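Quick question about two entries, pasted in order.
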Amino acid sequence: MAVAGKWICSIADIDETGGLQQSLEAVIDGLGYASPPIIALLFILMGGGLYSCRRRG
């Protein structure tokens, strides 16, 4: 399957990485897009954990 995939990519003139070009700028942009949902999830998880501990104690 790997050989067939390489053959198809060579005929379609597509590079093997699918057009993915890793650079420092791309990594920083990705972290910028990912950080707000991660922070929101942490606030939700921390808030739920603290609330449940207060009710028990």
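Here is the second entry:
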Amino acid sequence: MPRQPYLIKEGGSWMFYQPEITVSYYQELLHAMDIMHTQLLKSERIFRKIILACGNCNIDAMLSLAVVLNRTGRQIEGNALVHKAHLVCMEALPPYFNPDQDDVYWCILENRPLLRSFHAVITEYIKEKQYERALDKINYLLKINKNDDTGVAALLPVCCIYLGRYAEYLEWYQQQSPLQRTLETTFFSFLALYKLDLPEQAKARFLEARKAYPNMAAELLKSDHQFPADEFKTHNTRIPAGSRQEAFVCWLASRELWQREKELKKFLKAIPKETADLP
């Protein structure tokens, strides 16, 4: 049986090594990853072949197969594979690895499967509504990969909001530059202020959010939420930013948060049309 992956410090930098057998399948892995979005079944066969040959040694093959499984309605198997891949990665960390002091750099290509496994398992925890575990993993990953090369910080807001850590979320939000703030994070900041019973600040933040994203503000006030398929005459491969479609998708992703606030619509309807500045 092939050896398991391991993390070791070489020349002052931590490096994640996978057994040499994975090298033999590298080109096949790249090919399968290139076609996995258009040729799902073909890529699945290649990923399974690689995993059969390498065992639990090829993290990218395991994570990529999980994506294919999730997209073809086999979420239970895909979820299990993500957790298995991440467990292999965690077992690769030596006891003397200190996340408060040590860094795992994305620029070292060998480290990318390890870092990707964190992002993948965090996404699965969020799907499972295990927000505490997801947040723990996010904080751990941001410690060892301070540049956030996987973009995991974008998953932090939803965890904080679902866990009711509104003050913590607002502190994080204030640290973001205006260019880093998104539709979701802006409206979550309004929700956080509302939940902290700061009505004047919440009103001002909603006005700010409504000015930047009027369609999302309108979506929150609707009683009947439906995807606006008629918004565009031509097909778009991606949902356009600022569109009604984007607003619906954003609302849908967090509908539980919005729908459980029974007095929210009444609060929103009382907010005046004129702009206001945050105190």
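Reply: Residues 44 and 65 are 6 Å apart (CA to CA). The chain has two domains: 1-153, 164-279. Hope that helps.
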